[in-house]
Amino acid sequence: MSAAIQGTAAAEGVDVSAARRPGSIRSVAFHEPTAIAGLAIIGIFVLIALLSPFLLPGDPKEKVGPIFEHPSASHPLGLDGGGADMVKLLIAGTRVSLLVGFCAALVSALIGGTVGLFSGFYGGKTDIALMRMTDYVIVIPDIPLMIVAAALFGRSLTNIIIIIGIIYWTTTARLIRAQVKSVRERVYVKRARALGAGNRRLIFKHVLPQVAPLLIANTVLLVAYAIFAETFITFLGLGDPSVISWGRLIENAFTDDAILNNAWWAIVPPGLCVTLVVLGATLFGQSLEDALNPRLRVGHLSVRRFKVRPLRGKLDSE
Amino acid sequence: MTPLLEAEDLNVWFELPGGSELHAVRGISFELEPGERFGLVGESGCGKTTAMLTIMGLLPPNASVAGEVRLNGENILARGEESVSPHRWNDIAMVFQGAMNAFNPVQTVGAQIEEPMHLHGIAEGKMARRHVEELLERVGISKDRAARYPHEFSGGMRQRAAIAMALACEPKILLADEPTTALDVMVQAQILELLASLANDFDLALMLVTHDLPIVAQVCDRAAVMYAGEIAEAGTIDALYHTPRHPYTRLLFAAIPDLHAGGERVASIPGAPPRLDRPIVGCPFQPRCDKAFEPCPTVTPRLKRVGEAHDAACHLNDLVREATA
Amino acid sequence: MRSFDFVAKRVLFAALTVFVAITLNFVLFRTLSGDAVSALRCRQCTAQFKAYQREQLGLDKSKWEQYTIYLQGLAHGDMGKSLRSERPVTEELWQPLKNTMPMVALGTLFSIVFGILIGVISAWRRATWADRTGLWSGLAFYSMPPQWLGLLIVLFVAGALGLPTAGIKDPTLGILGDASTWEVFVDRMRHMILPALTLGLVLYGEYALVVRSAMLETLGEDYVLTARAKGLTNWATVWRHGLRNALLPIVTLVALSLGFIIGGSITIEYVFSYPGIGLQVVEAIDQRDYPLLQGAFLLLTLSVILANLVADLLYFKLDPRVSS
C-alpha cells in the first residue's frame, strides 16, 4: 500500500489565481466535504468504542441462542457461530480494532517521524545511513514479516501493536524527511541558526511545528493501514485469542463455516466495519495531506470544452 | 485595412467551485497589425495571460467567453473550440510563461519541434528534420542538440528552443507570455533581441505579455496597460511613458527603479487589486489612486481617445477635455 | 557510460539487499526454532528428545557455524528439510509456487489493465459521473480486507457463476478415464478465476486511484498545454504526452505494491483453500514447520527484491532524466 495516492479527495475545481496557499488542518477538516465525510465516519466508530462499556453489559461472547440464528427483532444482526449476538460482538470489536489501529499508527508515526526528522535535518552521513536502513526495511514483504514476528513473539495484543508499528514507518520516514529538508532551507530556520540557536532548539521550536501537520495527516492514513494489518494477522490465527476484534470476527466466521450455513450476517458486518473505517481514515487523511501539500493544478485537457456566450452588451457596474 | 488580429469586447468568466464566477477579463479590445510589436502589460492577476490564452482558445472547461477575436476579419471564437483550433500554430503560435516546462521531459527536443510540422502537414521525415535543424540554428542552438532531452538544456536555451518550436509552422502571429521571467538578466537581453530579430526576418506580428515594463519599452512599439481585467490605457510606448493619461500607468512607469537617479526611493503602489469574483463598482483602480475624485468610486470610466492612437479610461481626462473645451 | 553505471549500481544494491534478507531470515528463524524446541510440550519431549531435535536442526553448533552452514546450503539450493514431511523444503515449495504464480499473474494483470483504463478515463473525464464512479469504486475496493472480499465472493458470486471455491483441481476429474490437456487446463482456470478476481479487485482500487492522480498531475503540466496549443487533438495528447509520462509513477507503484500482493494472496489462498505458496505459509505456521516457513519467507522476500530491481531498471529506461 502506498502513500502515493494524491489528489483523490481533493476538491475538483479550478483556482485561476496563483497556487492555493497551504491551509491549516482546521480549515480543511471542517470545510472540505470529503474530509468531513471521513471524519464523520471515524467519529461515529470512535463514539461507539468509547460508549461500549455502557452498551455492553455482560460478556458479548455469551451464547444467547442457537448458532447462526437469522437476524430478528431482538438480535438485529443475528447470532454468530457460537450463538452470540452479532451486534454486541461488533461493538466489542470496535473498541479493540480502533485501539490497535490508533496505537500501532502512533508507534509507526513515532519511529517514522523520528527517522525522517533526523535524516532530513542532519543530512550527510546520518541521512545516508538512515535511508539505507529504510530501504532494506521497505523491501521485506510486510505480511510475511508480521506473520513470522507474531509466531515468534507471541500473540498478545501489545505485541501485535508493536509489530504493526515497526513495519509501517517507512513511508512516513520518507515523507517527513522530504518535508524537513524543505523546511530547513527556509529563511527563518537559517536566520534562527544565524542567531546562534542550537540544533535541539532548531528542531523542536522551528522544524517540528512546520512538519507536525503533515505528520498528523500521515498518521491518520497509518491508522487505516494498521486496522487493515490487524485483520490480516488475526485472520491467519495469529491474533490475541482472548480478545474480540473485527479481524477475529471475520476469522471466526470463516472457521465456523458461516458460508456453509449461508450466514451472511456473520460475514458481512465485521468486514463492512473495517472497510468503512479504512475508507473514512483514507478520505480524511488524504484530504489533509492534499491541503498541506498543495499541488492544485488546472487540467489542460478535458473532453468538455470552454463555452462561448453571446455578446451581452457592455457590462456596467452590476 | 483590416488589422491582422483584432479583439473586440473580450470577456472571460471562470466558474469557481462553490458556484461563484470569476470575471477575469472584462470587455477588452485591441488590434495587432502585421509586423507590429504590441505589449500587454499589468500586474499578475490582471487578466493579461488569460486574454492571451483566449486568443488561441486555450481555456479550461470551466471558462466561458464572450466577444470576438478576429483573424483577418474572421471571428475565430464564433463556435468556440471548433473554430479556433484550426488556427493553432499555423497562424498563431505561442511561447509560454516558464517555457522551462513547455517541453515534455521524456521526448527529445527535436521530436517535439517536429511534431506540429507533421500535424499540420508542413513537412515530413527528412525534410522536417532539416527544417528543425534550421530553426534551431536560427535561434542560436547548435543543430546536434535536436536529439537531446529538455533537461539537458539550460533555461535560456530551452526558451530559445521553445521559440524555435513556435515558428515551426510559420505563423504570422507570435504570442509571448512572460518570455523572460525566471531568466537571468544577460539571457533576458539575448532572448529579447532574438524575438525582435525574428519578428523582423519572418515578418511576424509580436504580442508580448508581461509585468516587466522595461521589456515592453525595449521591444514594443505600442502597448496596452491592463488593470483588474480591463484596459486602463493604450497607446505608443512613447506616449505611455512621457504622457501617461491614467494614474496607474504613471505609477507603473514611476515604479521602475532608476539606477542613475541616486537616493530616490523605489516607488511602489500601496494596496492590492480588487477581487474579480465580485462586481466592481466605479473605477477599479480608485482605492489605490492618488488622484481619485468625486465620480471615481461610483461611475465606471470608459476607454476614450485622449490623443493620437492613444486611449485611456480615467475620469481625469474628462476634466482636461472640459478645461480645454 | 550512464547506462552501465546505473544498472551496475542497482544490481549491486539488489545483491546487497538479498544478502541482508538472507541474514535476517537466518536470525529470525534460528530464534524461532530455538524457542520452538524449548517450548515443545509432548509426552516424548524429554530433555534427550529436545537435545536430539536441537542436533537435527543444527542448533547445537555455534551461531557462526550455523550461519555458514546455512549459507553453504543456500548456495547449493538446499533450504533444509520440512519438519512435517521430512522432504526437502525446495521440493515442498516447488509445486505451490507453480500454483501461485499464474493465479497472482492473472489477478495482477486484471488489476493493472482495469486500473489504467479506469484511471485514465477518470482523469480525462474529470468531475463527471464516470470519474466519480471510478474514484469511489477504487476507494471502496482499496478499503476492503482481501479475505472479506473473498468470503463475499464465495458467498454471493461463486454459486451464481457455478465456479468452484476450493482447491485447484476437481477431484473427480480423471477418475473415469484420462482427462485431456484441455480439460485439465479448463479445470485449473475455473479454480483460479475466483481467487485471481479477488486479488485483482483489491489491487485495482489502488492502481485506479494512482493512475488517475498521475494522469491528473501529468495533464496539468505545461507541456500538455503546449501540445494542445500546437494543435494536437485530445486523444493524441492524452496518449503521447499524458499516459506515457504517467507510466512512470505507475511502474513504481506496481513494484511497491508487490509486498501487498504477496500478503493479499496469502489470505486469499487461505480463503479459497488454493494450494499455493500462501497457503503453505499458513499451514506451516499452524504446524510450526519452521524450516518450511523459513524457506517460504526467503522466497517471498527475494521475489520482492527482484521485482523492485526490475521496476528500477524499467523506470530508468522510461525516464531520460534519471541518472545514477
In a few lines, what is going on in this structure?
The complex is a heterotrimer of chains A (318), B (325) and C (324). Chain A has 318 residues and is mostly helical. Helix content of chain A is 64%, strand content 1%.
Q: What can you see in these coordinates?
A:
The complex is a heterotrimer of chains A (318), B (325) and C (324). Chain A is mostly helical and 318 residues long. In chain A, 64% of the residues lie in helices and 1% in strands. Chain A has eleven helices and one strand, in the order H-H-H-H-H-H-H-H-H-H-H-E. In chain A, helix 6 packs across helix 9. Chain A is globular and about 75 Å long. Chain A starts with 24 loop residues before the first helix and ends in a 10-residue tail after the last strand. Chain B has helices spanning 48-55, 81-84, 109-119, 125-138, 155-166, 185-201, 213-219, 237-242, 247-254, 316-324; strands spanning 5-15, 21-32, 37-41, 63-71, 74-75, 92-95, 173-177, 205-210, 222-227, 230-236, 304-307, 310-312. Chain B is of the alpha/beta class. In chain B, helix 3 (109-119) crosses helix 4 (125-138), helix 3 packs parallel to helix 5 (155-166) and helix 5 packs parallel to helix 6 (185-201). The model of chain B has no long low-confidence stretch (mean pLDDT 86). In chain B, 30% of the residues lie in helices and 23% in strands. In chain B, the strands form two sheets. In chain B, strands 6-7-8-3-9-10-12-11 form an eight-stranded mixed sheet, sandwiched between helices. In chain B, strands 2-1-4-5 form a four-stranded antiparallel sheet, covered by helices on one side. Chain C has helices spanning 2-39, 47-56, 63-75, 89-124, 129-143, 146-161, 181-219, 222-229, 234-256, 258-271, 277-286, 290-318. In chain C, helix 1 (2-39) runs antiparallel to helix 12, helix 4 (89-124) crosses helix 11 and helix 4 (89-124) packs parallel to helix 12 (290-318). The N and C termini of chain C lie close together (10 Å). The model of chain C has no long low-confidence stretch (mean pLDDT 80). Classes of the chains: A mainly alpha (318), B alpha/beta (325), C mainly alpha (324). Strand 1 (307-308) of chain A pairs parallel with strand 4 (63-71) of chain B.
